[in-house]
User: Fold this.
Amino acid sequence: ECCGKEAKLFLDHCHKTGKMRGWLCDHCNNGIGRLGDDLQGALNAVKYLEQCGENYPDPQNSMEF
Assistant:
């Protein structure tokens, strides 16, 4: 219900309420959990990616981090 990829699915739930939210692949389920299991964590990640824009270092030509 998140990425749309065909994979083994896991029943996602809210850790605060215990309420079931939907079916997610392992990557999406873990990613959401690692972002804090809330909307603010996901929005922080979006903001970070927006700020980076096209300024990512080229991994082929740079060791810049």
